[in-house]
Amino acid sequence: MSYNQRQHEGVSIIELSGEIDLSQSPIARQQILGVIESGQDLLVDMAAVSYIDSSGVASLVEGYQAARKNQRQFALVAVSNSAMSVLSLARLDQVFPIYASVDAYFQQDD
Amino acid sequence: MNATLHQPVIEIDKLVTHYGTTEILHGIDLEVHEGEIMIIMGGSGSGKSTLLRYLLGLGIPTSGSIRLLGQDITRCDADAMYQLRRNMGVAFQGGALLSSLSVVENVMLPLREHTKLDEKTMRIMARMKLEVVNLGGYEDMMPAELSGGMIKRAALARAIVMDPKLLFFDEPSAGLDPVVAAELDELILRLRDAMGMTIVVVTHELDSAFKIADRITVLDRGHILITDTVTALRASDNERIQSLLNRTPSKERLEADAYMDRLTAG
């Protein structure tokens, strides 16, 4: 797994890529919680995620919960079909704010 | 699903096992492909539980080999087996939950054993799996407070908490009412479809087997009678397979000499 972080219109965007498994999810978790704790809104761009396991999804859950607690925005964007299957299994597709793309998120805000 | 497109993730070759001096499995050959749901069926004493035990690495066979995810478990060392177990989940027939731990602590056990994940992450993962098996909200209950169906579902949650590549499920429907049994069947299908798991189910429940199987292997007295699709199984003219499918008692001719030897040996 690798990640890239950027800013767009005052929102932090973390672009995750590759496999987010048991060995890699702690890194993703640290990045996500770091952004939320610094008081920023966060988009997690999952377009380049080839695989995500339950530990990766748990990190997203923890990030979303921290964002809600801090009254920050949190959303997933460009979730692949395979990642969506994993989210759907625990019905989390009905919980996370999910957008087709980063652009779709900002258009929605307009 | 077309299993032939996928690599075999379980390869059993000429497996012979003994219990004491009695030969139980007489040279079993079986392949299970990635993403396949394979049902192992057979009556009492057919050897299906023995086969599962050896698939889990819980016994040393007399001869033959068992390759799981490319690794021969009859020859690998303890460290390799430990690594392999990270990719295996097992839901035992009786649940095998630890009675002194709550449901969620039971589900978290493999994570504590195999990972160094943050406590919060582990707890969320366990709760997610409890949601998957429809036990959300029951996490603080103790095993003794659960019904039979709930114990099986909790055991399944624990078996899948690490997102294993291989899932073994021993008698998922045994002792359950038909509605709960059907729910577990649906769950097995969803797990395969969402996670791409390869799933081996040992059962003698025909309805369940026919509903979820990609292929079924029928064991009889330590031999494999057939390994094929549900359609092929139904079309088979083998007497013992039809006897199993139609739930009729075996009417094979008694082997008088062997029978007398058993009664009078020693």
From TrEMBL, chain A:
Record-annotated STAS domain positions: 1-109
Record Pfam families: STAS
Superkingdom of the organism of origin: Bacteria
Organism whose genome encodes this protein: Methylohalomonas lacus
GO MF annotation list: anti-sigma factor antagonist activity
Family annotation (PROSITE patterns): STAS
Lineage of the organism: Bacteria, Pseudomonadati, Pseudomonadota, Gammaproteobacteria, Methylohalomonadales
Family per record: Belongs to the anti-sigma-factor antagonist family.
Protein name: Anti-sigma factor antagonist
From TrEMBL, chain B:
Extent of the signal sequence: none
Residue ranges constituting the ABC transporter domain according to the UniProt record: 10-246
MF GO annotations: ATP binding; ATP hydrolysis activity
Keywords carried by this UniProt record: ATP-binding, Nucleotide-binding, Transport
One Pfam family from the record: ABC_tran
SUPFAM superfamilies according to UniProt: P-loop containing nucleoside triphosphate hydrolases
The protein's name in its UniProt record: Phospholipid/cholesterol/gamma-HCH transport system ATP-binding protein
Organism field: Methylohalomonas lacus
